[in-house]
Design brief:
Order of helices and strands: EHEEHEEHEHEEE
CATH architecture: Alpha-Beta Complex
Structural class: alpha+beta
CATH class: Alpha Beta
Distance between the termini: 31 Å
CATH topology: Cyclic Phosphodiesterase, Chain: A
Number of domains: 1
Strand content: 35-45%
CATH superfamily: Cyclic phosphodiesterase
Oligomer: single chain
């Protein structure tokens, strides 16, 4: 099974992300927009794992969750990777909770490297991916639209979200896009 570890987000976050996507779509760019219902904060992509490895990951997540306190998360800004002038991934970043999410990703990375998973070479950047640019079609219009939407972006509209667990998701690829299902949720206990 194809799997990843993530933090879920609130419905109010999803509503704000949906409005941002709707505004950016007016650029007419060739972007694969994320379904707001399935947006999450990915901590680590695992790739294909078997049932035995899945059980090991669940145990590792439970151990991590036992040492982590719940924390508040808020949205911050609109951005793009690798940079705004050449967007390939369009995202919304975190304000409050960014350092806690980064620390949590570090714990996940460390625990899973002990299980044989390769360590991520890029530094962790806490963000919610809302779109992936597929071609240069209308890229300049998209860049202008990102700038204008960013200037009027009101992340406070989403409020805050209390993160109290980490989730192991299965990702099933379909012609209509990925379908995510929860395999395990490790609740923070402190």
């Amino acid at each position: 099974m194809r799997a990843f570890i993530a933090i879920d987000i609130s419905e109010s976050f999803r509503g704000v992300l949906e409005r941002v996507e709707a505004s950016l779509k007016y650029a007419g760019a060739d972007v694969k927009w994320a379904d707001p219902a399935s947006i999450h904060l990915t901590l680590k992509f695992l790739g294909e794992i078997n049932d035995e490895k899945c059980a090991d990951v669940k145990s590792a997540l439970d151990a991590i969750a036992g040492s982590v306190r719940p924390f508040e998360m808020t949205l911050k800004a609109l951005g793009a990777f690798p940079e705004m002038r050449h967007p390939r991934v369009i995202w919304v970043g975190l304000d409050r909770g960014a350092s806690e999410a980064t620390a949590l990703a570090g714990l996940v990375e460390s625990a899973l490297s002990e299980l044989g998973f390769a360590k991520e070479e890029r530094p962790f950047s806490p963000h919610l991916t809302i779109g992936r640019v597929r071609s240069p079609l209308n890229r300049d219009k998209l860049i202008d639209k990102i700038s204008s939407v960013s200037a009027g972006f009101q992340p406070s509209d989403a409020g805050s979200y209390k993160v109290s667990s980490i989730i192991l998701f299965q990702s099933t690829l379909t012609p209509k896009g990925s379908i995510y299902s929860k395999l395990h949720e490790a609740q923070f206990t402190q």
